Amino acid sequence: MIDHKPSIILGLDPSSTVIGYGALTAGGQFVEGAIILPDSRGDGSFDRIIAMHGELVRLFERLRPSILLVEWTRGKVNTNRHGGLGAGLAVYGCGVGAAALAAWQWSQGHPECRMAAVCENDWTRGVPKKDRQLAIAAAHPEYGAHLGEDGGGDIADGIGLAAWWIQEQKVEKGLF
Fold this sequence. Notes:
The protein has 176 residues and is an alpha/beta fold. 44% of the residues lie in helices and 19% in strands. It has one domain: Ribonuclease H-like superfamily/Ribonuclease H (Nucleotidyltransferase, domain 5), CATH 3.30.420.10.
């Protein structure tokens, strides 16, 4: 029997303390969204990142995405964030890099899967996080029912990244 499972686009919003993710079908239907947490947020950054790496690999195996998208940073912190001092930026970068490496490695072993790193500013286009969360909640009631559980907007960003990619692909291919 041939498996006709729809293509899954999985968007990841990683950091060193939490990874938000959202999965949509290629047609834009909501599959799932949640956060991956380390065993303990009180653990050192290395232990947190390694614990989340293992959870990511299990997520990839379960969802078997055809597209893996990782929100990437330009590495710049303006004065509105952390007072412009870049507090924690190196550890945050390690978390993002570990998630990207997990996605890249998984995609290398699964030729049906493509992986891309997308800079945050490219897909958010300057829209504030709260506004993005409300737009995702309006478009995907399954997420909206749990909006209060996504205080950091990490799940919304995973879903939003996947939705942005779907829209961009349709525009590029003249389907929109």
